[in-house]
Amino acid sequence: MPLPNRVTPYGEILRAPERGTLLGNRGRLHRITSDGDRELVRTHRTRNWLICLLEFKGRRRTVMGPRSYTELFFLDEVTALAAGHRPCAECRNRDLDRFKRAVGITAAARIDQRLAADRMTAQGTRRTRPMVFAELPEGAVFDWQGSPWLRWHGGVLRWSLGGYRERRTDSLAPAEVPVLTPLLTVQALRGGYVPGVHPSAEDLSRS
Fold it and tell me: Is 113 in contact with 47 (CB distance < 8 Å)?
């Protein structure tokens, strides 16, 4: 059975066989059951939700081990950003610097504080905000017809765990959409931060 460690743009953590292209960290979220399975006992433990590289300096980890943080996995960076994560200060230091410059904030702790407020309501539920579609920057993810969609290269792409499966033109999108990407990250995208996308997004954009 797949481990519960794949993250959607809604911030949900699912069991799924598809592999991600980036690693994530929200602290230790799991426990090991008596039969050796891993189950989630919380959705986050820290305020600094990170996006990390799958490989860094040859380090090896046992995924969801007994004394480990819970390794999460994302389809790509726009997925991780939509879920409320930001680049890691160690393995993605240059990307974090680009993010800081794009939002005009120099302290990572301040970014974490802003993202925490952006992604959750006071009641602990996921926060989305209606925005005018025409004002959304490329790289932002929004909900449409019950699915997450990415605005990218003059079109909108329907997200799935395995990649982007459908492309429609911008003109077909609603005038206003509920945006999943946190406000601070939308600001970063507007400020010139260019996120990484899964190869399937580029394939659809060329078709």
Answer: yes
Rounded CA-CA distance 14/17 in Å is 10
Written as six digits, the tokens of 129 are 């905000």
Residue 126, judged by CB atoms within 10 A of its CB (0-12, 13-18, 19+), counts as middle
Span 92-128, pLDDT tens digits? 999 999 999 999 999 999 999 999 999 876 556 678 8
**Does residue 159 come out as left (phi exceeding 0), alpha (psi in the -120 to 50 range) or beta?**
beta
The pLDDT of 138-166, averaged and rounded, is: 95
Dihedral (CA of 68, 24, 10, 18) sign: negative
Return the amino acid letter for 95.
D
Rounded to a whole number of angstroms, the CA Rg of the chain reads 17
Collapsed DSSP state (helix, strand, coil) of residue 206: helix
Strand order in the sheet with 147-152: 129-132, 176-179, 141-144, 147-152, 155-158, 166-169
Three-state DSSP state, 176 = strand
The DSSP-derived string for 45-82 is S-S--EEE-S-STT----TT-TTS---EEESSHHHHHH
Please state the pTM of the whole predicted model: 0.95
Residue percentage of the chain with pLDDT more than 90: 80
Mean of all residue pLDDT scores within the chain: 93
